[in-house]
Amino acid sequence: MTFPDRFSDLPEYAFPRLRTLLAQSVPGGEVIDMTIGEPRHAMPDFVGEVLSENTAGFAKYPPNEGTPELRQAISGWIGRRYGVDVDPDREVMVLNGTREGLFNAAIALSPERKAGKRPAVLVPNPFYQVYAVAALTAGAEPVFVPASRETGFLPDYAALPTDLLDRVTIAYICSPSNPQGAVADRAYWEQLLDLADRHDFRIFADECYSEIYRTAPPPGAMQVARAQGADPERVVVFHSLSKRSNLPGLRSGFVAGGPACLARIKQLRAYAGAPLPLPLQRVAERVWSDEAHVAASLSLYQQKYRLADEMMSGVPGYSGPEGGFFLWLPVENGEAAAKRAYEQAGVRVLPGAYFGRDVNGTNPGEGFIRVAMVAGMDELQRGLQALRDCLYEQ
Ligand SMILES: Cc1ncc(COP(=O)(O)O)c(C=O)c1O
Hints:
Layout: H1 14-21, E1 32-33, H2 47-53, H3 68-82, E2 92-95, H4 98-109, E3 120-125, H5 130-137, E4 141-146, H6 162-165, E5 168-174, H7 186-199, E6 202-206, H8 221-228, E7 235-240, H9 241-244, E8 253-257, H10 259-272, H11 278-288, H12 292-312, E9 326-330, H13 334-345, E10 347-348, E11 350-351, E12 368-372, H14 377-392
Parallel strand pairs: 1-10, 3-4, 3-5, 5-6, 6-7
Antiparallel strand pairs: 2-8, 7-8, 9-12, 11-12
Helix pairs in contact: 2-11, 3-11, 4-5, 4-10, 7-8, 12-14, 13-14
């Protein structure tokens, strides 16, 4: 019995790795979990009602591409949020959460060869782990590009050698980013679009934290591409209700991009996709059309940024996130810090290295811990205080 080689070097996922790291440890206080990026603000209050009105839909196979009404609601949201006109029939497809979309779109769109060679897929390092697995599945080489303090916590893809860039089929970019909390501004997107044009690759923009930001709403990749008059096939964007609307269990997101890219993604998903159940599509339709709950949740996150800035102000090298809900805190060694936080204070956080890969002996996540600011204000305050006391004031 044999197994594929291409996944054999994958590290254990972050959560089981943390369990192993802390297996022998005893918590030094009430356990406060700041590991998982699972939003805990209120979901929209109409979810139950819409679901119960639509339960008959469980008796049907759901439309693979999303109902016309849901695609229309999504295209309406894109129009309001980014001022961009998107054809709901040809440029939008509903996803069962963005994670599967980020994976399946790479299989649908990364060619077998580029410039006569094995293709490369660019991945920021550290990163949301599905990007690397998607690249490997598509037969491409994942190339991990540091997204560290020196590069403004976003990858500097333009600094890569030309012969590598010529092999690139897809560049993943996450803005606001997990885990660093960095936001790509217009200039960043413009340069990346130019680079993609010169080397003929696609940009996969993971924008699932787009509605959680410190001051101004982050610009979207599609918005900048349209303003620049870029080829509409250059950019594929991924959005989710998990973070925007505190509905990670709804498994609802979408992919949008040029009609040719979308046709390929739809074709693959017609064979192998897992469409979102019809009643959940009805819920998603309502959720994309409502902004009141998003504004309420954003204002809570903005309070959390202020609290984190206050609590961490004296920490050398601290910079609060520009977007998303993770703190990316500098420490000497992430694993040692995570162990100490648990053993001395009962606080569970993830070592930054678990989101990164070693390249030439360096893992850009090693000197960080990732702290999810998803709990209520009181618990968050207790967690941050404990982290400050045990990691920075001894
Ligand atoms: C950067 C990033 N992309 C995508 C996802 C997946 O989100 P979804 O729940 O839509 O699958 C997550 C979830 O944690 C994430 O952090």
